[in-house]
Amino acid sequence: MKKRKLGSTDLEVYPFAFGGNVFGWTANEDTSFELLDQYTELGFNFIDTADVYSAWVPGNKGGESETIIGKWIHQKRNRDKLVIATKVGAEINSTHKGLKKSYILLEVEESLKRLQTDYIDLYFTHFDDPNTPIEEVLEAYQQLIKAGKIRYIGVSNMSPERIIKSLEISKTNNLPSYTVLQPEYNLYDRESYEKDYEPIAEKYNLGVMTYYSLASGFLTGKYHSELDLNKSKRGDGLKKYLNERGIRIIKTLEEVAARNTATPAQVAIAWIIQRPSITTPIASASKLGQLDILKSVDLNLSEDDMNDLDTASRVIP
Question: GO MF annotations for this entry (predicted)?
Fold first, then answer.
């Protein structure tokens, strides 16, 4: 297992980021601690979260994931061994949203407090805010970088045109530049990234960390028909994958997994890891047993394996 550099940053991570969206949602605090213990004991170092995680859960208000991670870091005293990514810009509630400079400067303090740290390695624009000038957003980040509160910035859920415009404004105005891109990408959801975002990542040397790397769990191979959808709290959102192409992908995943003595989930993640423009996938686990997915890092798919998966998942017009 070798570390990879995140774009033009000096951050080095193993090619599997733990997705903190489950903390305070499908994993309670005790389970979250156990998951983080095992993840880091196996040598991994990259944790991805956001200020909005997990505001969608009844009774939550946002910040639960960061709070759990912060308590764990405080207990373990291991901040210097970790790369922590968090985000700003998602709508937490009617007053906590957007990318106004004043809001970013306030919200980063809340994230730092919850994470029990004095700096964030990678701070993401989680969602674009077309009502705020790009210069204003980047100036906020510049102030935070100068203060040592964040080290690098990344971008997610922004149109290709706006990303390019932001990168060019950074260059022209000597402002901080996005160094990492976080797109949706997996064996099923390929077209948008490969067509619209991959060229940007390659041209501007952006690190790429993918979310929904397992298509919300569909690529684990647990779902073959609508009868299987009640196996997960995310079941209703998986219905869109149960079509001819989706079933073909699952069948091929199972075939490749059998050839490699692996699971479909491990193969799906290994496929992403072996894509040339990808730095690391993000995936989560709610139970300790699900961490066997980390074996994907050491799974070397053959050229035939990769070709079979590419063919099965190709989007046919």
Answer: oxidoreductase activity
